[in-house]
Amino acid sequence: MGKGAGGCFSSGPAVESRAPARVPTPQQTKPAARPTAASAMPTKVYIVFYSTWGHVHSMAKAVKEGVDSVEGCEGVLYQVAETLPAEVLAKMHAPPKPDVPVITADELKNADGVLFGLSTRFGQAAAQMKSFMDSTGGLWQAGALAGKPAGVFFSTGTQGGGQETAAFTFLTHLAHHGMIFVPTGYTFGGDMFNMQEVHGGSPYGAGCFAGPDGSRQPSATELKYAKHQGAYMAGKVKLLAGK
Predict the structure, then answer these.
(1) Euclidean distance between CA atoms 34 and 130, whole angstroms
(2) Which parts of 96-219 fold into alpha helices (H)?
(3) What domain range includes position 210?
């Protein structure tokens, strides 16, 4: 007989007692975590453009195709407000504006990233786009666009009409807002080196040539580059947004 811890005698060796393991019932099993509202939201890439004769609008639609092709990303088309009177546009033989919402400056802060579509005038963005950017002073003061990725695509009348200078001079807007410029570089591949056909585009972004009279529409290669830029940009925006 052994002496127990409390000074009493026990009748035999102590036997360890263990409770049987409990198997959780289906009701007790913890359900898998559901995605939060934030994680379920798509990555929004705003495609903000100005188009007089429709060339940049065509490019913008191809850019949206590219954005939408990336899982979890959505391209949202917006146009900036027209500043020319209707009678002036009529004399310019400009077609009616596309059925695309006109963006306000405050809406820019809701984007995860922005691609700006530029009609060009003398190697720079058209006055309508500049006017829109001039209206973003409140966002600049609040730092609302700082850190957001941004890119550009464009249309020019001729091969020497500013395919790169329009992009380069637009960078001042992005820099003052603290936005992150995302050029495409040469990621479009072999088509950028195609010397067998006339085509727009540069390391800054996709581009098309409209011709001196605006009669030339974006080519298949130019639209392909625009779609590529949309997909490339969406991937970078998604990465930076942590989604």
Answers:
(1) 44
(2) 127-134, 137-142, 165-177
(3) 42-241
